[in-house]
Automatic annotation (TrEMBL):
<feature type="domain" description="Immunoglobulin">
    <location>
        <begin position="176"/>
        <end position="279"/>
    </location>
</feature>
<dbReference type="InterPro" id="IPR003599">
    <property type="entry name" value="Ig_sub"/>
</dbReference>
<protein>
    <recommendedName>
        <fullName>Immunoglobulin domain-containing protein</fullName>
    </recommendedName>
</protein>
<dbReference type="Pfam" id="PF07686">
    <property type="entry name" value="V-set"/>
</dbReference>
<dbReference type="InterPro" id="IPR013106">
    <property type="entry name" value="Ig_V-set"/>
</dbReference>
<dbReference type="InterPro" id="IPR036179">
    <property type="entry name" value="Ig-like_dom_sf"/>
</dbReference>
<feature type="domain" description="Immunoglobulin">
    <location>
        <begin position="73"/>
        <end position="175"/>
    </location>
</feature>
<dbReference type="InterPro" id="IPR013783">
    <property type="entry name" value="Ig-like_fold"/>
</dbReference>
<feature type="domain" description="Immunoglobulin">
    <location>
        <begin position="280"/>
        <end position="381"/>
    </location>
</feature>
């Protein structure tokens, strides 16, 4: 019996030798009772048959037994740009088999193999799967290349043979590659290419508006960097000429968004997306505590270490060498006698803190080759 209504779905009359099954669409052609043991086999299980089952034996050896069956969809998780391989479980298609691949929620047919006519087709003419579907003619396996987040959904496989129809579902989740950084960090987005070919073209775009920020064209031997419409990328971008990797220096919250990489090689084009999230490093303390803002930067000899505070970026500490360190009181004197700068690590310690020390602290480490940045948001709570 099945469900809360205890619907009879299969029964055996031992004396008469009769076996009968319920005429219910969920179980049609899927049930098989063992005449000797009474064991029930359900083939080609699907989500609607999840639920409570009860076995009841009447007669001299009366017996009840309950089972809970839970059917889950096979869930696969991928990162954008990866290839998804969905397997039929068939080693070789028979000549009378019909393989259908459908994509929900519209239940659209995306691939088909007809063993009888020996024909196979992929239906990728629309922008959704254009040139990204591959069908194995021997097994019926489906591969989706260069995946996008819009490929997320349920894929249904139907295998129709002479005597039965088998169903299988795959729940595919395609995620953006989320990268989290601290404000001031240098970020490198990698193409995954070891060396560009002579006819390759690399395009880097920013946000869903596809704002061009960098490109390499091997055919014309040109490299271009763009500052963006509002100048947010001015003097921050660097392209690796060998791999096409993009580096963003001194990243800020304004640089948090989706970055799209497009690689064109001959007639083939692939895309990859990255979600970059820049956040300020948060530090908290209680009034009266000493708080240290650690840089995690290795300071070299002759580096200039500069700490600033507040919306006006007012200097509060400067280190030129280990012996030449200066601290400043700030306009209202809130830092008087409270700052200690460690030149070797660049870390800043604020002693005997008060709530007025809450705010944004910015660090610059300036050397001959580059400038490194860090941003901290400090919160001091009252006792």
């Amino acid at each position: 019996m099945f469900g809360p209504q205890e619907m009879v779905i299969a029964q055996i009359y031992k004396k008469a030798g009769n076996i009968s099954y319920a005429d219910d669409e969920r179980f049609r052609d899927k049930l098989q009772l063992d005449h000797q043991t009474g064991d029930l086999t359900i083939s080609d299980i699907r989500i609607p048959i999840s639920g409570d089952y009860q076995m009841k034996i009447t007669g001299s050896k009366a017996k009840n037994k309950r089972f809970k069956v839970i059917v889950r969809v096979d869930t696969r998780k991928f990162t954008e740009g990866e290839s998804v391989h969905l397997q039929t479980g068939v080693t070789e298609i028979q000549k009378d088999d019909l393989i259908l691949w459908k994509f929900e929620p519209k239940n659209a047919l995306i691939a088909k193999i007809d063993g009888q006519s020996n024909e196979s087709n992929v239906y990728d003419d629309d922008d959704g799967f254009r040139d990204r579907l591959e069908l194995d003619n021997r097994t019926g396996d489906l591969t989706i290349t260069n995946t996008k987040s819009t490929d997320s959904g349920v894929y249904e496989l139907q295998i129709k043979s002479r005597n039965k129809v088998l169903y299988k579902k795959f729940n595919v989740l395609v995620w953006l590659n989320n990268l989290k950084y601290t404000v001031g960090d240098s970020v490198t987005l990698q193409t995954g290419v070891t060396a560009l070919n002579k006819d390759d073209r690399i395009l880097w775009k920013f946000s869903d508006k596809d704002i061009f920020i960098a490109e390499i064209n091997r055919a014309t031997n040109q490299t271009k960097l763009y500052k963006g419409p509002d100048g947010r990328f001015r003097d921050r971008l660097q392209l690796n000429q060998r791999t096409g990797d993009l580096t963003i220096r001194n990243i800020s919250r304004a640089h948090s968004d989706v970055y799209t990489l497009q690689i064109t090689s001959g007639k083939k084009s692939t895309c990859k997306r990255f979600m970059v999230i820049a956040h300020e490093k948060t530090v908290s303390g209680v009034e009266g505590d000493s708080v240290t803002l650690n840089t995690d930067i290795e300071i070299q000899e002759d580096d200039l270490v500069l700490w600033m505070f507040g919306p006006e970026d007012c200097p509060i500490a400067k280190g030129e060498t280990k012996e030449k360190i200066s601290t400043y009181d700030y306009a209202d004197g809130r830092f008087r006698g409270k700052l200690n700068l460690n030149y070797e690590s660049g870390s800043l310690t604020i002693t005997n803190t008060r709530t007025e020390h809450t705010g944004v602290y910015k660090l610059q480490v300036i050397c001959s080759r580059e400038t490194k940045y860090k941003t901290f948001r400090l919160t001091i709570r009252g006792k």
